[in-house]
Design brief:
This protein is α+β, with helices and mostly antiparallel strands.
């Protein structure tokens, strides 16, 4: 059986790939876009999530309901000066952020980005395979394992590599479908 250490390295690569894909905005409202925006609250720079309730009433809208209505203007100003590129609507009680539909061109750009991330993840998986192969050759050369053991380990490793590569392809395919769904 292929070494668990190499399998865990491959799994880490896949989890990093999933994280990268999480940052690719699919035209849906995601409260995490507010993570780096702070508002001046009693003299302290405070994240928006800590001054009110952030919710997504529908897939294209984020609603911010501050616990203290006196900071509505501050929140609105912080969002306008951020790099979000979305104009907040303030009705006196809550602030709404409406995310526009992605254009066809932007969707295609994002699918190219997903493909690039997938290819980088597959290269990382193959690098782990190469590292493992070198380790097995070294063990065989030092007579720690037999040539037959080495062949079996290499076959198991190749099977594992194929399985992990297919997993990356499937994740990327799902993300591309999500991006292309209008």
């Amino acid at each position: 059986m292929a070494d668990k250490n190499f399998e865990s390295k491959m799994d880490k690569t896949i989890s990093n790939f999933r994280e990268q894909l999480g940052s690719v905005r699919a035209g849906r409202a995601n409260p995490s876009v507010l993570d780096r925006i702070t508002v001046d609250y009693y003299g302290a720079a405070t994240p928006i999530q800590q001054v009110g309730t952030v919710s997504t009433p529908d897939p294209r809208t984020i609603m911010i309901q501050p616990w203290d209505a006196s900071i509505l203007k501050e929140i609105e100003k912080a969002i306008q000066t951020s790099d979000l590129g979305i104009n907040p609507q303030n009705d006196g009680k809550v602030i709404r952020l409406n995310f526009p539909q992605l254009t066809e061109e932007r969707r295609k750009e994002l699918t190219k980005l997903v493909k690039k991330y997938a290819e980088e993840a597959k290269v990382a998986i193959r690098n782990v395979r190469r590292e493992a192969m070198d380790e097995y050759k070294k063990q065989q050369k030092n007579s720690e394992i037999t040539e037959d053991d080495q062949k079996k380990l290499e076959k198991d490793l190749q099977d594992l590599t194929d399985k992990k590569t297919k997993e990356i392809d499937k994740i990327a395919e799902d993300k591309e479908k999500e991006l292309l769904t209008v």
